[in-house]
Specification:
By secondary structure, the protein is an alpha/beta fold. The chain has eleven helices and twelve strands. The chain has three domains: 82 residues, Arc Repressor Mutant, subunit A, CATH 1.10.10.10; 104 residues, 3-Layer(aba) Sandwich (D-Maltodextrin-Binding Protein, domain 2); 97 residues, D-Maltodextrin-Binding Protein, domain 2 (3-Layer(aba) Sandwich). A five-stranded mixed sheet has the order 4-3-5-12-6. It holds the Pfam family HTH_1.
């Protein structure tokens, strides 16, 4: 006899009630049918689940272990069937979101939490991309949705984009840097003496974007923005950081904002996804992201 849901349910009801008759009543079956189910299941397992010697049905040690370690199967069976049915009707089995490393991530938690609630059967993956790596993730099908793709859409067929807003940049140096005390606008000659800290573009199949740097200036590539900020605070180098990421450090005086000759312009960001893709999850995400209260949260 296959170890079906009904067989598991029968065993658990008998264990809980201590009676074949009570279990049969709750299952709307005759006691002999319940007894037969248990007998066939014990034959399949190769050991007795119940001790039938006394008036009260008791679990054997092996039976108790079986009950203790099979409850999760009953608990998750209905959920498994429900989620499988959702996949059958067209809901994505997996959904991949790529985010730009420069966006404000405060809204990401709510997005994922609500997405998970709406689509419990979908495996959600969120990865970070840098610069044109965002567009590359769409091109390479690593992402179903991008939050924060920069600048204008490259020449890619079948991609839809929607403007999010602009990220402002601050050029910062360490409080201890010799540049911190300079009053005048910093020149290229002054800046070139110090390494620039940047995060490298993650594009693999389309042309990577060069991060801000001066000709002849040493470049140090940090793995992500938090490390870049820490390196600048330490005085290892200088560089541009999104304003929303460095505001607290500026307020605390841990870094100093400086004016330079070649000022970095704000970066325009977009939502982006593949057009003509039948995806209930993608449709839900787009509708969620287009709500007014979610419009500017990624840039502030």
């Amino acid at each position: 006899m296959p170890l079906s849901k009904e067989a598991f349910k029968t065993i658990h009801l008998i264990a809980k009630s201590g009676s074949f008759a009570v279990a049969a009543e709750r299952l709307n079956r005759v006691p002999s049918a319940v007894s037969y189910t248990v007998k066939k299941m014990e034959e399949e397992l190769g050991f007795n689940l119940f001790d039938r010697k006394g008036r009260q049905i008791k679990l054997t040690p092996a039976g108790q272990y079986f009950i203790d370690h099979s409850q999760w199967m009953l608990d998750t069976y209905d959920e498994l069937v429900r989620n499988s049915a959702m996949i059958y009707t067209g809901v994505d089995a997996t959904f991949n979101i790529a985010i730009n490393n420069i966006i404000n991530r405060d809204g990401l938690i709510d997005l994922i939490a609500q997405l998970n609630q709406q689509f419990p059967s979908t495996k959600i993956s969120v990865t970070t991309e840098v610069y044109n790596g965002c567009w590359d993730a769409l091109y390479d099908r690593r992402a179903d949705l991008v939050i924060g793709a920069p600048h204008s859409t490259p020449k890619m067929e079948g991609v839809v984009s929607q403007s999010i807003g602009k990220i402002e940049w601050d050029f910062i140096v360490a409080q201890s840097s010799p540049l911190a005390s300079q009053i005048n606008v910093l020149t290229a000659e002054q800046l070139r003496q110090y390494p620039v800290i940047v995060v490298k573009d993650t594009a693999k199949h389309i042309l990577p974007q060069d991060a801000w740097s001066l000709t002849g200036q040493k470049i140090i590539y940090a793995p992500e923005l938090s490390t870049a900020i820490a390196l600048i605070e330490r005085g290892v180098g200088i560089g541009y950081i999104p304003h929303h990421r460095i505001k607290t450090s500026l307020d605390l005086g841990q870094v100093i904002k400086k004016a330079i000759v070649e000022h970095k312009q704000p970066t325009q960001l977009f939502y982006a996804w593949h057009a003509n893709r039948e995806s209930p999850v993608l449709n839900w995400c787009i509708e969620y992201l287009m709500q007014p209260q979610n419009a500017n949260q990624w840039c502030d």
